[in-house]
Amino acid sequence: MEPTQQRDQLYFFDTTLRDGEQSPGCSMTFEEKLSLAHGLAELGVDILEAGFAVASEGDFHSIASIAKAVRGPVIASLARARRQDIELAAKAVEPAKRPRIHVFLASSDLHLEYKLKIARAEAIAQAGESVRLARSYVDDVEFSPEDATRSDHDFLCQMVSVAIEAGATTINVPDTVGYATPHEYGDLFRMLRKRVPGAENVIFSSHCHDDLGLAVANSLAAIEAGVRQVECTINGIGERAGNAALEEIAAALHVRADQYPVRNNIVLDRIYSVSQLLASVISFSPSPNKAVVGINAFAHEAGIHQHGVLSNPLTYEIMTPASVGVPGNRMVLGKHSGRRAMAHRLRELGYDLAPEDLDIAYVAFTELADRKKVVYDQDLINLVSHHRRHHDL
Ligand code: KIV
Ligand code: ZN
């Protein structure tokens, strides 16, 4: 895409504090939620789903406090398509400058029959009534047909039409169980935008789970299909395999801006600190190889790669660590590392060896690296000291 071409605004809807928190090991205290909410606001998320008001008194209190204290994003609460849920959600988000109620109701026959035990007609009526009720409290109402990607298309269109007619301003189409493939998910939006009356007056939104590892790919496919809100979580935390990772979507849009006709408000270089803040609050860190924020995301061990990166980082890095707030790349010294990376690290440690001494040190280094999985700074220092004593290095 040409840089001069018109770019639409893409809204980031963060659900770390709601869908993210709903996963094992991710429960957060009120103080932790509040501090994360401030971090998310500084990160530039447009909509912050602070919780599910009816879920517990604690959740209600967190949403209400975030709505009062956090300025910037729209503050949302989730609600089932039930009066009590919607009333509580409305009360929780009331202090917000820009409140949103997010109503959801299953649209797949599987969920209607086995979970809700209601017929399609009843679901349609509930969708309309609940969106209308939510609209009586706030102007900004999001509707999600849960399990949309396993729903009958005609029925899905009918439910979405009713929700729009009742006043929904955002239509979120959840891939609740991470079942969709990118093409299919994009086509689903194309179909809805074409067939549903009033579709041009609402914002369509993606909400992807990662059961097949496709959550980010599906979100990007949705953007290609005209979606202008993406729902996601920090570090991709969420039910089962998680939700689409905010940092991966934001990085992809930044690095491949040529592919997506959108702009967004994410302050990219705050990503790492928010990721770290979340990791310090929940019981696990992102996996080491996690894109963008994992400890290995900017680490290089192979000699060829280290040589390339030391000559020009662009050889093996598609974005700078600083662009996403990571302090720097890391040369990990191990058995795959080359002489140049070892020499570089030794220089950083204050040892500027002559070429022939480097040869000796490198032989000792490779022997050590074969025995140890990682060669740490102290190993290198010991190695040089030992050789200085015994071989006059
Ligand atoms: O995955 C899902 O369907 C959800 C909805 C409640 C939006 O999280
Ligand atoms: Zn979800």
From TrEMBL:
Keywords: Amino-acid biosynthesis, Branched-chain amino acid biosynthesis, Leucine biosynthesis, Manganese, Transferase. SUPFAM superfamilies: Aldolase. Its EC number is 2.3.3.13. One of its GO terms (biological process) is L-leucine biosynthetic process. It comes from the Bacteria. Pathway: Amino-acid biosynthesis; L-leucine biosynthesis; L-leucine from 3-methyl-2-oxobutanoate: step 1/4. InterPro entries: 2-IPM_HCS-like, AIPM/Hcit_synth_CS, Aldolase_TIM, LeuA/HCS_post-cat, PYR_CT. Residues 10-272 form the Pyruvate carboxyltransferase domain. GO terms for molecular function: 2-isopropylmalate synthase activity. Pfam families: HCS_D2, HMGL-like. The keyword RNA-binding does not apply. PANTHER family: 2-ISOPROPYLMALATE SYNTHASE 1, CHLOROPLASTIC-RELATED, HOMOCITRATE SYNTHASE-RELATED. Belongs to the alpha-IPM synthase/homocitrate synthase family. LeuA type 1 subfamily. This is 2-isopropylmalate synthase. It comes from Acidisarcina polymorpha.
